[in-house]
Amino acid sequence: MVYRFLADAVLLAHLAFILFVVFGALLVARWPRLLLLHLLAAAWGFGIEVLGAICPLTYLENHMRLLAGGSGYSGGFIDHYLLPLIYPGAMSRGLQLALAAAVLLINAGLYGWIVYSNQEKPSRASRAKASDGPQEPAG
Hints:
Elements: H1 2-30, H2 35-51, H3 56-67, H4 77-86, H5 93-120, H6 124-132
């Protein structure tokens, strides 16, 4: 029972990580301190797809499922859970490269949007200064 729970927790963490890889730039727009973490995660996700590798979280989930008395699965997380939802059929090398390109293009677009939108906003310091308004001399 515990191992089944742990396998499901790894599955959810894996999904969260994939969503962070693809859309984490939206979080960076809100919390800029996440920039380095997101860039590293996006590079990892891109690399896994380009190399045709399997994420270690897949191995961990399979191990937990085996310890729970179930069976693991072959292939990666995307092959097993997401691909049947998105694209009925087997994962091909071309599709892996397309996913890698999607990670790159989505993040480039989101970061471009962040840079563009930040150029139009005044900085916090200039907003605070502007909100003080002109001071009337006492007299």
